[in-house]
Amino acid sequence: MATMMKPADQVQDQTGTRARQSIASDRIEGNKAVVSRLSGAVLRAAMVILMIALPSLVLTSTTADTALIVVLVCISAAVFTFFEYNSDSPSLIEFRDAPPFNRVRFFGLCATVFALAIIAKGVTDPTTLTRLFTIIGGSLAQAMDFPYSPVRLVVLMLPSEADLTLINSVRTAAGLSYLVSLLSLAFFVLTFRLNNWPSQKGGFNIWTNLPTFDPTAGGDVVERLERDGQVNLILGFLLPFLIPALVKLASDMFNPIQLQNPHTLIWMMTAWAFLPASMIMRGIAILRVAQMIVMQRERAYLDAKEDGVPA
Predict the structure, then answer these.
(1) How far is residue 123's CA from residue 218's CA, in Å, rounded to a whole number?
(2) 311 residues of the chain, pLDDT tens digit each
(3) 199: DSSP letter
(4) How far apart are alpha carbons 121 and 49 in whole angstroms?
(5) Engineering a disulfide at 192: which of 72, 82, 187, 197 sits with its beta carbon 3.0 to 4.6 angstroms away?
(6) What is the C-alpha to C-alpha distance for residues 192 and 310, in angstroms, rounded to an integer?
(7) How many CA atoms does the CB half-sphere of 25 hold within 13 Å?
(8) How far apart are CA 204 and CA 296, in angstroms?
(9) Cα 15–21–26 angle (5° rounding)?
(10) What is the dihedral angle through the alpha carbons of 197, 107, 234, 222, rounded to the nearest 10 degrees?
């Protein structure tokens, strides 16, 4: 009797061992995921701090008040980035789990800030690197400064009493920042086409990648996404032309923006070039999500039709 029960006991022991191993494996994988998400959030927060503080680190003319403001902005941005990427679902950052959308935008922003900071440093502390960036930026700006171009409109928004040095600085910063934004946009479109973005193994989660979009708000989801994407594309194309006009109009009524300050020039030109390119990327991404939903509906309809279920 004991001999007959022995194999059953062995099977029970093996089953129990496999169950315990499965539970332990799930716990280990869960712990690894938590650690990976935490480390990724810390790394992203540190990179945001470095990007915001970059002009203050490069420029030697940074005042104490400017440094204090930069520190406050760095802390706020780092805390926001950490909690957004460490949480299970973000509250504002879109396409968190659909790389390289945010990575392309971030590195394009970093490249713009770095290039403009190097050029601004060359005004007070010229080096071989600053001269190189200034020559390249100036040549690009001259090539992009033609009638009705965004760069020409940025130059025209300056007050009539602006000196030639300021005009050349603004033209160089505008041309270089606009070129970087175009290259970032081109790289994103190329990645979008080649990698069939967003190619994900687990599927696209609209709740975590579009936290500001409510699919249950009413109306067809595809129509709302397509409308949102088209609005982003239109605004992204028009903003480089509208922003200088709005700044010129505001300067006539209020105190004009002092672009003589290198920090103001860097962040103004970065925002002018980055925001439209970012909106165009967002429009392309949202239209892609709408296309994915349409394709999923078509597959579900065909599957139902094959199974004989009435549509």
Answers:
(1) 55
(2) 344 444 445 544 544 555 445 454 555 555 666 778 899 999 999 999 999 999 999 998 888 899 999 999 999 999 999 999 998 878 889 998 888 999 999 999 999 999 999 999 998 888 999 999 999 999 989 999 899 899 999 998 888 888 888 899 999 999 999 999 999 999 999 988 888 888 766 677 888 889 888 887 778 899 999 999 999 999 999 999 999 888 888 776 666 567 888 999 999 999 999 999 999 999 999 999 999 999 888 888 887 877 765 55
(3) -
(4) 20
(5) 197
(6) 36
(7) 6
(8) 11
(9) 130
(10) 30
The one-letter amino acid at 154? V
CB 157 within 8 A of CB 245: yes
Q: pTM for the full model?
A: 0.84
Query: Which amino acid is residue 195, in one-letter code?
Result: N
Which among 52, 167, 62 has a CA at the least distance from the CA of 114? 52
- How far is it, in rounded angstroms, from Cα 233 to Cα 92? 20
What is the residue whose two structure tokens read 């509906």? Answer: 297
